[in-house]
From TrEMBL:
Residues 1-147 form the N-acetyltransferase domain. Residues 166-184 have a biased composition (Acidic residues). It comes from the Archaea. This is GNAT family N-acetyltransferase. Keywords: Transferase. Residues 159-193 are annotated as: Disordered. GO terms for molecular function: acyltransferase activity, transferring groups other than amino-acyl groups. Gene3D superfamilies: 3.40.630.30. Pfam families: Acetyltransf_1 (PF00583).
Amino acid sequence: MYVRDAKNRDEAWLLDHIEAMGLDETAFRSRDYVIAVDEVDNVKAGFGRYRVHKTDDGEHCELTSIGVLDGWRGQGVGAHVVERLVSTAADEGFEVVYSLTDEPDYLAQFGFDPIDESELPERLRERLDEKREGVAPEAIPMRVDPDRFRVPERLREAFKGAAAAPEEDEPEEGAEDFGIDPDEATYKYDTGR
């Protein structure tokens, strides 16, 4: 399993999963995303976005649209996506990374702290309002200093052996699934029963 930058050819896959998960796709650009990929089967397992807001008072970094596909959850995929995004922000010189999330407990395990809305730069306060009116009514602002970011060891270990959970077998459909009583049904053709 590894995390790589998204490519243009990933755009349709990203948009499909962002929509399916009900995530924020505002000002979508595939090049802002990273994708977790299973190196054995080349299957995409998760993704996230690093978004820079350029304002008159400087630039601000926001992590958004972080998602992990169902069969891959609980295996450190999201942790490594977030780690890659925070690392990118640090490499770009950001001393603070923000996230406007309705999953604060998830980000808190990495060192993100909740903050008061008044501590947000103006553009991010506007974004918080947009998210609350749209995809995340319960969103709260959080931030982390990239130097304080940590992935818990249990998630780092889980990521090393991450594998898609086996899909549950669909039960075989029977006459009852279609509202037919098989003991009383008559058939157009003689089935020899």
